[in-house]
Write a structure and sequence with these properties.
With about 190 residues, this protein is of the alpha+beta class. It has three helices and twelve strands, in the order βαββββαββββαβββ. The strands form two sheets. An eight-stranded mixed beta sheet has the order 6-7-8-5-9-12-11-10, with helices on one face. Strands 1-4-3-2 form a four-stranded mixed beta sheet, with helices on one face. The longest helix is centred in the middle third of the chain and has 12 residues.
Length: about 190
């Protein structure tokens, strides 16, 4: 996970997909229906999914696993927000591109791509949203105490947009949406 400066006034979330063979990964993306967007710094291939979500093909570098233990809040998953009309094609694209298993969520609007190492990388959640013509993404943070974290985020300038049984949608000062979820920061599992 990284924060990067972009030349676009609109902030956004995108995935970096690591590969040991970037040219092959780019070819696979194109075969699955992605479109090239541009090449960053002459080496990173920036692509658009069939539904328009930007993502990058990056070179797989050895990294440490995700640190979860002892934290009250952790970036747990990236939610890919898919309009109803694009759902089937976009879900198939991400499942085939990542090679991960597709698992249905407890609610019909959710599915996720299974990770062979649950303690590893940030999870990928697929969320069906109502209308729209472009796929977007937002971060979900697992928190130990959602009410307390919500107050903390509000004190930092976020605004609560909507509260659900197991998550709260907030809008950051820059206009980006994100969620605080009732997932255990140490395990990523739903806290009951």
């Amino acid at each position: 996970m990284e924060i990067q400066r972009i030349d676009d006034a609109r902030p956004r979330v995108h995935l970096d997909l690591d590969s040991t063979d970037r040219p092959a990964a780019v070819r696979r993306s194109l075969d699955l229906g992605a479109q090239p967007a541009w090449t960053r710094r002459g080496e990173v291939a920036v692509m658009r999914s069939p539904g328009g979500l930007l993502y990058c093909h990056t070179v797989d570098l050895p990294t440490e696993g995700m640190v979860r233990d002892g934290l009250d809040i952790v970036l747990d998953q990236v939610s890919i927000d898919i309009p109803e009309a694009l759902w089937e094609a976009e879900v198939a694209f991400w499942q085939q591109l990542t090679g991960r298993s597709l698992e249905r969520g407890r609610r019909p609007e959710f599915a996720f791509l299974g990770d062979p190492d649950p303690a590893g990388a940030v999870r990928i959640l697929l969320q069906r949203v109502g209308s729209g013509d472009t796929v977007t993404a937002h971060p979900d943070f697992a928190v130990a105490d959602r009410p307390a974290q919500t107050v903390r985020h509000e004190s930092l300038g976020a605004v609560v947009e909507q509260v659900f049984e197991r998550w709260t949608v907030l809008v950051a000062p820059d206009g980006r949406r994100y969620c605080l979820t009732d997932r255990d920061p140490a395990t990523g599992r739903l806290a009951f």
